[in-house]
Each structure stands twice: as structure tokens, then as C-alpha cells.
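Late entry, written up from scratch paper. The run itself happened at the end of the previous shift, but nothing got recorded in the book at the time, so transcribing now.
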Amino acid sequence: MSNIWKSLKKNKYLSKIYKNASNIKMVMRHRKLIKNNNAYLRSNSQIKAMKGKHAGRRCFIIGNGPSLSIKDLARLENEDTFAMNKIYKVFKETNWRPTYYFCQDIRVIEEIYKDQSIDMDNISAQMRFFPIDVKWQGIKYSDKNSYFYLKRKYITNKNIEFSDDVSLYCGEGSTVTYSAIQFAVYFGYNEIYLIGVDHNYSKLINEDGTVTVNQKVRDYFSKEYTYKHSEPVDLRTSTRAYEKANEYCKKREIIIKNATRGGKLEAFDRIDLDELL
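Output as recorded:
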């Protein structure tokens, strides 16, 4: 056991998590993940160097909902932006490119990794972020990307975490947008605005667990934007995560508002995008 804790010593947060772990296989798995892992150590240093870098600035976190428009993206060319998943599907229609790119859902990462139309390691952005456990899916690390530890776990109303230090871990919120918010706060932005986060899908799991299907609802900004896995989307946990983010930011006097045109995300105060820009 001493060898296991020794290998975890470089990451105090992981050491704390598994100090009383009863599942030795899980401990060994994480040991293999971070022990002498150059990608992890390199990325950890890169992320730490970003702490507070953008203090006093504003940023936009861009979702992939149907409300997202090329016109609005063009207006964000000189802004700091976070984007995610298959946002590259819009690149051929605009000169805008994100400052930071994120993807964390393993199934989505696998689809992008196999997509012949894009090189995952060269998606246009100043920095690209992926969870360190992509290695378990047979995806090779690249020096062009940064890798973070996503604390994957079953989310309840009581155990959603907002990380104070994303160089150690990022809290799970059932949506990559929640991770982007945590990084934005760590990077020092004191104004965070969401656009294109419609928070609504054609197949939804309701609060009571039933499923609603509405074929008239578009899921994404483009018909080319599809996933092979199309299970109903459970927005209950992501809604709680957004509420947690709002609570965290307000306590620290960080402005976070929803500038999405329409949609059903009401966890944040609304602001008109035209007025904002």
C-alpha cells in the first residue's frame, strides 16, 4: 500500500480522495494514470500558470445550441471565448475561433478522434483541454493539448463540487460547460457570459424520471452536428451544477450571466447579448 500512496503524493487532492479507499483496483487504476505521467505533469504546470492570468477581463462561454448564430460568433472575434465538443463544425462559416477548447465526454471524444474531417490535436484554439483519463480509451496524449483531472462521479444535489483549483481537479457537473466555467473562474475572469446554451433537447428526462420527446426541437446549431449516441438528456444534474456555479460566483462577486438568445436555462440572471456587445 505504501507504494500506492507514494505514487499519489504528487497530487494532494487524489491522495485525500483515496486515503481511505476500499476499492484497491480503483486506487491502482489512478496510480497507473498519474505515476510518471509526463502529460499529466506537463499539463498541471500549464494550468497552474494560467491562474489569475485574465483577472479583470470578461469572457464568453459558447454552447452548441440551436440559438448559436454565425453573426454572433463574428462579433466575438476580439473577445476571449471558451467553446467545446463539435464546435469545429461551424469553422468553415466564420473566421471566429475559440480561445480555449474543451471536450470531456468520453463518447464524444471518441467520435471526434475518429472524425476524418478534423484532427483532434489541431482544433483551432490557443489551448485545448481534455480529461486525463482519455488514455483508458486508447487515445494517445499529445503535447499540443492540456489534460485535467475530472472528478467523475455520480452526481446528487448534495455532492456537486465547484473546484477552487482546476490544476488539481475539476468538479463533475454532467456538462462540459460547467467545467469551462470552473476554468474561467480559475483563469481570473470576473465577468462570464454564456451564449448558445439553450439547455433544451428533443429527448429529455424530466424531474420525475419520465421521458419527453419533441421532434420539433433542434438539439444543435447545425444539422451536421450529430452524435451516434442519442439517449434522452438528463438535465436535472446539469441544472443543479449551473445553480452551484451561480452561487459560487455570486459569493466571490464574479458576474456570471446568461446571454443566450432564448433557451430554457434560468439558473443565471439574463442579459441581452446585443446590449452586452
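The radius of gyration is 19 Å.
(Scratch paper discarded after transcription.)
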